[in-house]
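User:
Note these tokens:
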Amino acid sequence: MLRTVIEFFVLLSPFALFLYLKPVMKELSHTDFVKVLLKANLISFAIFFVFLISGDFIFNTVLNINFEAFRIFGGIIIFSIAYLFIVRGQKGFFQLRGNLDDLASEIALPFLVGAATISLTILMGKKFPIINSTLLLILILSLNFVSIMFLKYLRDRIKRKKFKIAFDKNLEVLLRLNGFFIGAIGINMIIRGINNLYL
């Protein structure tokens, strides 16, 4: 269970999400930002829960897609994102667009819910009982939320501009380092998918 939590948490990458949400923090009050982030987590939980209880039924029966193909695709996507993290850092992010009311769903998809996290959710549902898996999901999303809020609290406490810049640069270093772990998870997903398909 601990391994699953760590792997999922690394994929969610709160450092990356915090840097991605910096423009939003400037536009929203603290209360509104908390509401948007909470809503994004609730949307993500609802989507994860659907895949948790349905397993690979959606892929095999409804869409007639082999789950291992989805796992390989998820590995490719997560490797691509990790590559952008390492090479471009914060510049590799997409920019937020549209109305602020749509921010929660824009944060949830694709930054919290993606091919890799959906794959992990399905695998988690296979490994553990539904109650345990649901509690794990709540724990993981809560840890992610608390991590982002803690980083925001630390940054808000810094008064001098040059120290804020240094704080952001250090986070970007962590983001790039995190990219190596995310990339390794992506490659591992590809290898597992290929092994399960052909071995």
Remarks:
- The chain has a mean pLDDT of 80.
- Residues 14 and 34 are 15 Å apart (CA to CA).
